[in-house]
Amino acid sequence: MILSTRKGLNALQVNTNDVRGFFDSLAGSWDADRCADAGKIRDILRAADIVPGVRVLDVACGTGVLFPFYLECGAESVTGVDISPEMIRIARGKVGDSRIRLVCADVEEFEESGFDRIVVFNALPHFPDPERLIRSLAYRLAPGGRLTIAHDRCRAAVNGWHEQTAGSVSMGLCPAEITAQWMGRVLNVDTATDGDDRYIVSGVKPSEAN
Predict the structure, then answer these.
(1) Which residues make Cβ contacts (< 8 Å) with residue 19, sequence separation at least 6?
(2) What is the CA radius of gyration of the chain?
(3) Residue 164, Cβ density class (10 Å: 0-12 exposed, 13-18 middle, ≥19 buried)
(4) 112-128: pLDDT as tens digits
(5) Phi and psi dihedrals of 138, rounded to 5?
(6) What does the alpha-carbon distance between residue 140 and residue 55 come to, in Å, rounded to a whole number?
(7) Cα 40 from Cα 24, distance rounded (Å)
(8) CA–CA distance, 153 with 143 (Å, rounded to integer)
(9) Could you tell me which residues are beta bridge partners of residue 199?
(10) Fewer beta carbons within 10 angstroms: which end of the chain, N or C?
(11) Contact 101, 152 (CB under 8 A)
(12) Which residues touch 181 (CB under 8 Å, ≥6 apart)?
């Protein structure tokens, strides 16, 4: 059994079917209810090293909030994966660029690999085993590729919001140092920010030569 990282949040393992249903129910109002902070997103994508020519995997992409920012950075391609069919349906309705591909799937069952960058934005607490997810995503990186886990709010705000609205589908967001420890078992971690207005943990997959 996986215990919550914050008292008050769900103490049992999150069920992926519940997560799917929860986000399906919110998809229609998702964009209207949530305003993206463009400046903060750009800062996060700089930390994620989204630069011209990279192939990006956006994990739990939702309605595609990050897609225009990836293209602004010059990404060669973006694969957005989400477990919610309704989130993918809405994202598909907004996508008009051939560089973006959408897949409705549990990313831990998604078999493609060789990505230069993988980003998990505002989603980590909804995975039943965060450490297992990190290992799975590290495998999907190309040598020298980077995995970034980020939230555009502080950990206390994320956990407080989830306690009120998403307790049944959130494991809670643990301290960045814990996420960095998990990531450090498979990647070289160079960023672990547990700040007042954001949360970022990022690491690079060693090259084959190393």
Answers:
(1) 83, 84, 126, 169
(2) 16
(3) exposed
(4) 999 999 999 999 988 98
(5) -60, -35
(6) 12
(7) 26
(8) 30
(9) 151, 194
(10) N
(11) no
(12) none
- The DSSP bridge partners found for residue 79 are 57, 101
Is residue 55 a contact partner of residue 117, using CB atoms and an 8 Å limit?
Answer: yes
Pairs from 99-108 (Cβ < 8 Å, separation ≥ 24): 99/71, 99/75, 100/64, 100/67, 100/71, 101/77, 102/61, 102/64, 103/79, 105/81, 106/16, 107/57, 107/59, 107/60, 107/81, 107/83, 107/133, 107/136, 107/137, 108/132, 108/133, 108/136
The answer to whether 162 and 5 have CB atoms below 8 angstroms apart is: no
User: Residue with structure tokens 């950990």?
Assistant: 155
Tokens of 118: 């993988």
Query: By CB neighbour count within 10 A (0-12 exposed, 13-18 middle, 19+ buried), where does 209 fall?
Result: exposed
* pLDDT mean over 19-32: 82
Give kind and range of the element (H or E) at residue 117. strand 115-121
Strand pairing class (188-194; 199-204):
antiparallel
Q: Which tens digit of pLDDT belongs to each residue from 181-199?
A: 999 999 999 999 999 999 9
3 residue type, one letter: L
What pTM value is reported for the model? 0.90
